[in-house]
Write a structure and sequence with these properties.
Blueprint (H helix, E strand, L loop, with lengths): L1 H13 L23 E8 L2 E8 L5 E7 L6 E5 L7 E8 L2 E8 L2 E7 L7 E7 L10 E8 L5 E7 L3 E7 L5 E9 L2 E9 L2 E8 L9 E5 L7 E5 L6 H4 L1 E9 L4 E9 L9 E10 L2 E4 L6 E2 L6 E2 L5 E4 L10 E8 L3 E10 L5 E7 L2 E5 L4 H4 L4 E7 L3 E11 L5 E8 L4
The structure holds 2-acetamido-2-deoxy-beta-D-glucopyranose (NAG) (8 copies).
InterPro entries: Glyco_hydro_43, Glyco_hydro_beta-prop_sf
GO biological process, one term: carbohydrate metabolic process
Protein name: Arabinanase/levansucrase/invertase
Length: 410
Amino acid sequence: MLSNIFFLLFLTLTVQARKWIVPGALWYDTTGAKIDAHGAGMWKVCSTYYLTGSSYASSMQPRTYSSTDLTNWVNRGIQFPIPNMFRPKMFYTGDRYWIFGQVNRTVQSLWSHTPIGGWHNGTDMLDPHNSTTNFGITDQGVFADTDGKVYYLASADHNNLQVNIIRPNGTVGEIIGDISGAYEAPGCFKVDGTYFIVTSNKTAYAPNPDKVFWATDLHGPWNGPQDIAPESTNTYNSQNTYDLVVEGSERTTYVYTGDEWTIEGDPRSNYVWLPMSVDGTNVTLQYHPIWRVDVRTGEISTPEPGRWYKAPRASPCNSPVTFTNVKGTGAMRWVSFYYTVSDPTAGDAQISINGAAAANISTYNSRAGYSEVVPVGLKLKRGRNSIEVSCTGYSNFTVSLKGIEVHDDY
Ligand SMILES: *[C@@H]1O[C@H](CO)[C@@H](O)[C@H](O)[C@H]1NC(C)=O
Ligand SMILES: *[C@@H]1O[C@H](CO)[C@@H](O)[C@H](O)[C@H]1NC(C)=O
Ligand SMILES: *[C@@H]1O[C@H](CO)[C@@H](O)[C@H](O)[C@H]1NC(C)=O
Ligand SMILES: *[C@@H]1O[C@H](CO)[C@@H](O)[C@H](O)[C@H]1NC(C)=O
Ligand SMILES: *[C@@H]1O[C@H](CO)[C@@H](O)[C@H](O)[C@H]1NC(C)=O
Ligand SMILES: *[C@@H]1O[C@H](CO)[C@@H](O)[C@H](O)[C@H]1NC(C)=O
Ligand SMILES: *[C@@H]1O[C@H](CO)[C@@H](O)[C@H](O)[C@H]1NC(C)=O
Ligand SMILES: *[C@@H]1O[C@H](CO)[C@@H](O)[C@H](O)[C@H]1NC(C)=O
């Protein structure tokens, strides 16, 4: 226990705490390693959030992180040695914690008396369907209602998104509601008396415009679908995985959490988390390049404007554009690049700091198409820095750079 405390203290002292959520940016845990929990879900115990997802760097075994502020996450390790577990979701029902994950197109349960460690294999591969229909399932979700009852959201292979009861003994019970169509990756949240299901189309690892359905009863009838973001953004380049309710002292904030998959679906995939506005039955993602939610009050904030450096030229493609005398402190900070690209698939914009390659922002380039602001976490040395933006790509790849905004914090 004491060594744990020293260990945590050590982490706090050596790794810079992170203040902001930056959709699509690299997200590191408290040791500085890239967070590796894809298709994840969240479960809150007292004031701790547990994020359990599929570790794409470790054979897709279930990995859990914990946090008390939703921005700084401690890696709590692989929870059970079971490979190829997709979209694991941790929750509590009956007298124990459960992780339900998709293995071989059916659901495998794990259980434990604590949220971290002590996991046991569930006795069987649970089939959420009856023996007559016997559908396989893909890209599942879990929803806990305000009355404590828990539901399994199965996006069935046969193009029927189903709401199933999860019994207190951790088995999947009957189907109580369904939505017909080719949907997957469902999440559900409740606002007053209305249930919302956020779900994506089935386009493998390519993003698509995710939809929302709504009903006043989980049995349905389900209304919708409606887009949750402007269609052309493909859900800001992401796919739903879990929809979080942050009930604060001042307000309740609904948070969409999604995966920004690489097209290969590999460990380089990032995360897009955004607050949702809910106006009647109109649910829309509120895009902020940099934001946070205060878990105590539920309030959302965005950073103060940073220091602005205007680009001396718009195009970094024939020769690099250099920003000189950029002030740093030796700590990490968010630097927002204001630029647009002609075609995100046709090239890469790149960044170097003081002559050393710092980041490829290629995976961020698609974002430049719709928000024009791409924040990148960079360490600038104390004093003056030189930031250079260059570009490589096909001849039709053009970049129009306005400038950079250097924020004070990270
Ligand atoms: C999943 O299927 C593969 C290949 O059929 C098999 O090797 C593996 O043991 C199965 N995994 C589980 C958890 O049943
Ligand atoms: C867990 O159960 C699954 C299916 O019942 C089985 O394939 C797998 O080998 C078990 N894993 C362990 C570590 O017991
Ligand atoms: C199983 O599914 C079939 C086909 O939908 C249905 O007729 C039957 O009533 C179901 N059985 C149970 C036990 O739910
Ligand atoms: C779980 O509960 C259901 C309904 O009460 C029962 O039919 C089933 O046998 C139980 N399964 C296990 C594994 O305890
Ligand atoms: C999913 O996307 C495909 C291709 O864009 C489209 O044809 C189909 O209608 C969509 N399915 C649903 C259920 O929206
Ligand atoms: C839904 O909300 C968004 C954002 O607040 C707004 O732009 C849009 O017009 C609304 N749609 C409807 C149908 O009210
Ligand atoms: C950027 O991408 C290029 C080409 O894929 C690669 O050679 C280079 O190492 C990358 N740079 C950084 C800083 O990741
Ligand atoms: C740019 O060029 C590439 C390679 O020739 C091509 O695949 C892409 O479609 C072009 N983009 C546009 C917007 O014309």
